[in-house]
Write a structure and sequence with these properties.
The structure is a single chain. By secondary structure, this protein is of the alpha/beta class. It contains ten helices and eight strands. The strands form two sheets. It has a five-stranded parallel β-sheet with strand order 5-6-7-4-8. It is elongated, with a radius of gyration of 29 Å.
Length: 279
């Protein structure tokens, strides 16, 4: 049976040679590949017109070229996360196009916030802290600078996603619709893979309360901050630690604050509410 199979292979090879116009092929020498130093055979073939052609392809290098044309599992996952971040981020119209340069600080704490954001972007991935927590009252520019940081890093090739917590929770709820292709698990997998997540306005989301606290929301928020504990993240919030406990409960609220602040630099900002005007 083995002889029959071998004969079939030989017949197939001969048929292929005829179809491609090759009458004869043989090895006439070898060479050293100039790229990988492998020993590569030099093959000589004769076409149906009697012309002689010499060819010498390094199979190792050709295989590597083919491999590089296809993304690895890691790169494929990163590209998938990049696509997810662009498709599902939610940027309010008032923030689109904002840059760090267009933000004019008025107080020392606002200057500190702007300088910190600039350093964070310039030295992304090299700072002593992984994340930033921008905390303070409404309208002082926390979301403006957080968005600007993400936009600049995206220009530099990083995957970034800006999403207010309320919109994130709404995205989770869409997975409960059987017609969507998203799953809650896949959302969290993508959230963990993104280079920089901007999680905007933590605590400002609204959900019906259960047992006195917004337990469903706190569960999802905690999952995000837990996944991102050692990963670059910018959090913005109007809340103080005590406010988190009041909203989510002492246990869940405490856990959320703890995860947010782990490996993060916290910036307390004060200033006037400029939401009603331009800045």
């Amino acid at each position: 049976m083995g002889v029959i199979c071998m004969q079939g292979v030989q017949d197939g090879f001969k048929k292929t040679m005829i179809q491609t116009g090759i009458r004869q092929i043989k090895q006439v020498g070898s060479r050293e590949c100039e790229y990988c130093n492998s020993t590569v055979p030099i093959m000589e073939r004769m076409d149906i017109e009697g012309n002689i052609h010499k060819e010498s392809l390094c199979l190792k290098c050709e295989t590597e070229k083919t491999r590089q044309r296809f993304p690895s599992k890691g790169n494929l996952k990163r590209e998938k996360a990049r696509g997810f971040s662009i498709k599902h981020e939610k940027v309010p119209k008032k923030l689109r196009g904002k840059t760090a340069a267009s933000y004019i600080p008025e107080t020392d704490s606002e200057k500190n916030m702007k300088n910190t954001i600039g350093d964070y972007v310039l030295n992304f991935g090299k700072t002593e802290y992984n994340s930033l927590v921008l905390a303070g009252p409404m309208g002082v520019g926390k979301s403006h600078l957080a968005y600007a940081a993400g936009a600049e890093l995206r220009k530099r090739g990083y995957s970034t996603m800006f999403i207010p917590v309320d919109d994130f929770l709404s995205l989770i709820k869409t997975t409960y619709d059987k017609e969507t292709d998203l799953s809650e698990q896949s959302i969290f997998e993508m959230i963990e893979e993104i280079d920089l997540l901007i999680f905007d306005e933590i605590g400002a989301e609204y959900n019906s309360r259960k047992d006195g606290f917004e337990s469903w929301a706190s569960e999802k928020v905690l999952k995000v901050v837990d996944l991102r504990e050692d990963l670059p993240t910018i959090y913005t919030t109007n809340y103080r630690p005590a406010d988190f406990e009041s909203k989510y409960g002492s246990v869940q609220g405490g856990r959320i604050v703890s995860r947010m602040q782990a490996g993060a630099k916290k910036i307390m900002v004060d200033g006037r509410d400029r939401r009603s005007g331009d800045y």
